[in-house]
Amino acid sequence: MLGSPVDIAIIGVVVLVVFGPKKVPELGKALGQGIGNFKRALSDVSDDVKAGINESEKKDITPAPTATPTPAAPQTADAPDEKAVSS
What's the Cα-to-Cα distance from 32 to each of 2, 18, 45, 54, 71, rounded to whole Å? Predict the structure, then answer.
């Protein structure tokens, strides 16, 4: 649709007529800088997301400390019952 050499030439002529021959190089430079800044920002965001994922995975890998259950004290048959003592 917009890839044939004729289409690109027509767009180039229109840009040249609208902006003039002195302004076209400045527009090209500004467009190139804008694309470069966009790519850098996209790369930075991608790196931040990857770092966050790696950090999250590290937290998931380290096991959480588990509390060990304390064994219940064994009850002996010789000990008096609490209900019997309080009556």
Answer: 20, 19, 20, 33, 71
For the chain, give the number of residues: 87
DSSP state of 78: T
Rounded distance between C-alpha atoms, residue 13 and residue 20, angstroms: 10
Task: Please write the tens of the pLDDT for every residue from 19-68.
Answer: 999 999 999 999 999 999 999 999 999 999 998 888 877 776 656 667 77
Domain boundaries, the chain: 21-63
Secondary structure of residue 40 in the 3-state scheme: helix
